[in-house]
Amino acid sequence: MPRALPPLPYPDAEELVDHWWWRPGWRIGTRFYAWHVTVADLDPLAGHVAAYQEALVQFGFLDLIPRRWLHLTVQGLDHVHAVSARERDAVVDAVRQRLAVIPAPVLTFGRTVLGREAVAVPPVDPQPLRVVHAAVRAGIEAIRGPAAGAPSEQYRPHVSAAYVNAAAGPDPVRAALDAVAADPVQITLTHATLIEMHRDHRRYEWTTIATADLGPSQQRRP
Question: What is the pLDDT of residues 91-137, one digit of tens each?
């Protein structure tokens, strides 16, 4: 019998389209501040993503993301040129204050989802990350006013495994991913990171500016 698979946390897209078009305000040389969860040092999650990436190597229309640059986007801040160093540091302090009172959540990651522009691995339960997202947005808004992007109730957290570089149909990719026998993994989210990022080389690369720790873990101890 075929292996039973749990339901997808978000629906698959009906088509795959190129991710690498230039968004307004972006070009070679653009630098942008954003709050992310970086994944390279989260061994269970990075290994889980890698297992799915092995099934994606066959597709030339997918750009696999190197482990060093795996991330979960939380909330954008703004273009670097639009944020003074003093304002940026005030945002960091405001976000730190808000995350410090949120217990560090234990998150489970399982199946992949096909977005229109990326193959992604979302958490099974996105709600704990929506709490983190709301705190980061509140920290930004305390200093700069309304934050860009969707409100927290519409936030769909995920770790991208690959970006789409050309239009394609999703069915062969879904079949390849569903053939991967990868058990769900758990991580404890201990902090979020403010990064200065760019996409000059058809991938997102960054330098770390600051981190903001979450409170004590929700993991029950013996």
Answer: 999 999 999 999 999 999 999 999 999 999 999 999 999 999 999 99
Closest by alpha carbon to 152, among 175, 183, 129, 180? Answer: 129
Query: Dihedral (C-alpha) 81, 82, 87, 93: value to the nearest 10 degrees?
Result: -90
Please answer whether residues 36 and 193 qualify as being in contact, where contact means their C-beta atoms are separated by less than 8 angstroms. Answer: yes
Write b or e for each residue in 16-43: b if 16 or more Cβ atoms lie within 10 A of its Cβ, otherwise e.
Answer: beebeeeeeeeeeebebbbbbbbbeebe
Q: With CA atoms as reference, report the closest residue to 6 among 173, 183, 186, 202.
A: 183
Among left, alpha and beta (phi > 0; psi -120 to 50; other), residue 28 is: beta
| CATH annotation of 32-215 | 3.90.1140.10
Residues 6+ apart with CB under 8 A from 85: none
Above pLDDT 70, what percent of the chain? 95
Strands 32-38 and 103-104, by their bridges, are unpaired
* Global confidence as pTM: 0.93
Least confident of 74-78, 89-93, 181-185: 181-185
